[in-house]
Known about the structure:
Blueprint (H helix, E strand, L loop, with lengths): L10 H14 L5 H17 L13 H4 L2 H12 L16 H18 L21 H16 L5 H16 L3 H5 L12 E6 L10 E6 L2 H17 L17 E3 L2 E3 L7 H19 L12 H6 L5 E4 L5 H24 L3 H20 L4 H10 L5 H6 L4 H11 L10
Antiparallel strand pairs: 1-2, 2-5, 3-4
Helix pairs in contact: 1-2, 1-5, 2-5, 6-7, 7-9, 9-16, 12-13, 12-14
Amino acid sequence: MTGGVDRYLLxxxxxxxxxxxxxxxxxxxxxRARQVSWxxxxxxxxxxxxxxxxxxxxxxxxxxxxxxxxxxxxLAGTGALRLRTARDPKKNSxxxxxxxxxxxxxxxxxxxxxxxxxxxxxxDPPNKExxxxxxxxxxxxxxxxxxxxxxxxxxxxxxxxxxxxxxDTGARAGELCACTVGDLSxxxxxxxxxxxxxxxxxxxAHTELLALSGLSRxxxxxxxxxxxxxxxxxxxxxTALWVSLHGNHRDGQLLPAGTPLQxxxxxxxxxxxxxxxxxxxxxxxxxxxxxxxxEQLRRGVDPEAVGAPMRPHPGKYAxxxxxxxxxxxxxxxxxxxxxxxxxxxxxxxALREAVRGAWGEGVEHEVQLAVLAAAGLTESASLAAAxxxxxxxxxxxxxxxxGRAPGAAD
Length: 410
């Protein structure tokens, strides 16, 4: 056995079992799981074809020999393995070919055959021209104008926030959708992003802290209240930073507005915003229509990133929390003692540095807020002095499903 795969299985059964194992990995999204299952099913059907040299009794080692994989890919490329007749059987999708190779590599990993097989190499990604700096700046300005226009819709405000964030961080759609309100720094000056190489596993993931521009911070200040309003029908805890604008159906279930936005939905929403922008900017001097895929905007960004731990170190966690508690108590005492402005300003700066440092190391917002409350910093003005954006505080309240940490009050 390798993980949940019985390597004594043969043919289609082995492929299906390996696909199920890939789907169980924490790093595998629903879309990727469907792709791997699709490829396993295709390869299983290839074994029924007289053109393929293997049959249902093929072992794992045989299935992933280069010549046998090449034959499967050849049959798949002609459309011979489709369950449904394509509108244009001669049309071969480059995207489908890429997905097949990525899925085959994942199936090999699930079986533990990496060192025993010779799969075709994965093709280099197409060399799409990234969005240049000037049109990217124009896009940011156009999104700002659209959002600032009277009666700006939640969709425009959300896309301003997403577009500005992508321009700052270069995050992929999947990375954005994985972000929670806890990934925003207390002052909205940074965003924590978990980077994962496409097709890579959990072990290859790493965390980065990326600076957010003034445009992104202002956009997030506008988006977070819209997000809260959209979540009126969502019960319990809700932490996703980007949520849907309208109700939707998934797996036969009706989902209300305010549920976590999925990568495909985010991409579609982005496309709509860019189409609107291109239409509005048509005829402006020097304007070139922007591509409707976020990937090209992302690839034009080269952000400076600071590494951060995937999980906080217990010893450092406690040390940083103690520092927050100490500096919170110092500021609380000064606010009650009417000390000079310069002394209080220094205490504010010290506490803000401690709060930001603790967040960067993974100390949760609600934990820090409980420590501030214990030090007597509970009202909105005190928390703002400690470096917390009011809009984020509201989002943290909502994320917990019941309100701010015990002892806190407005």
